[in-house]
Amino acid sequence: MILSGHEIRSRVEADEITVTPFNADHINPNSIDLTLGDTILRYCDPIIDPRVEPEVVEVKIPEDGLTLEPLSFCLGSSREIVGSTKYVPLVHAKSSTARAGLFVHVTADLIDIGSIGTITFQLFSTLALRVYPGMRIAQMTFWKPKGKITLYKGKYQGSIGPQKSKIYRDRHWETLVK
């Protein structure tokens, strides 16, 4: 069951959903808008080896915007700290953002219940597009789980700002090389 916008607001006010800072103007019929922070990360290596910590460069988005080049990939993050221990958040692009040629968080939209932090957006620009700090770039829905809940305690818990891939920390790599 998806929560309506009115119910999202009610659950934020009841401290069952975290959205900080909260802006009531960002509530939609069944979601809340998330805004882009002021930093992006770009990977430095032409080939990403998932067994090795990737090197990234941090770029501040100027107030007058930053142009994302066509067919480029970077990581951004929400300004808002979001999450819930009672509902399952999902991140989606805003349709207006998608219609401008920017894929936002397409392949990893499910946020584990209990994860609280900023959202890292995977940004893939199909066209040259200017982005600005604070622009509404994504939206989050909340879903009521059914069954016993196990809260997230993983490697991205408490994230602030964009987070590079931490797949290199996964223990399964050790068993693959034996």
From TrEMBL:
- Keyword Hydrolase present in the record's keywords: the answer is yes
Q: Does the keyword Cytoplasm apply?
A: no
Q: Which GO terms describe its biological process?
A: dUTP biosynthetic process
What sections of the protein cross the membrane? none
Keywords (A to Z) from UniProt: Hydrolase, Nucleotide metabolism
Q: What is its EC number?
A: 3.5.4.13
Q: Name one GO molecular function term.
A: dCTP deaminase activity
First-tier enzyme category under EC:
hydrolase
- Name listed for the protein in its UniProt record: dCTP deaminase
Organism of origin is Thermocatellispora tengchongensis
Lineage summary: Bacteria, Bacillati, Actinomycetota, Actinomycetes, Streptosporangiales
